[in-house]
Write a structure and sequence with these properties.
Blueprint lengths: L4 H10 L6 H23 L2 H25 L5 H8 L4
GO molecular function: phosphotransferase activity, phosphate group as acceptor
Pfam families: EptA_B_N
GO biological process, one term: lipopolysaccharide core region biosynthetic process
Length: about 90
């Protein structure tokens, strides 16, 4: 559910892998590095790690589901609007 398949499908449509293999691999490495960095930074806070990882997994699964099902693309503004409550 959180494998970013739709993201890489859109990337391969925009930048054909045969012509841009280095670019596509760089994107994959940067995404993996970002996830590893977040996990490493959070691991120093013992009591914070598990709840944050659970929250990230749930958010990733939900956004991945809607992206795969409906083709929506999420950005920071969309996530802020979804998490903002006025009540």
């Amino acid at each position: 559910a959180t494998a970013n398949l739709t993201f890489f499908d859109k990337i391969s449509q925009t930048y054909p892998i045969a012509d841009n293999l280095g670019f596509v691999l760089t994107i994959a490495v940067v995404l993996f590095g970002a996830m590893l960095l977040i996990t490493t930074l959070l691991s120093s806070y013992r009591y914070v790690l598990k709840p944050v990882l659970i929250l990230l997994l749930i958010m990733g699964a939900v956004t991945s589901y809607f992206t795969d099902t409906y083709g929506t693309v999420y950005d920071t503004t969309m996530l802020q609007n979804a998490l903002q409550t006025d009540q």
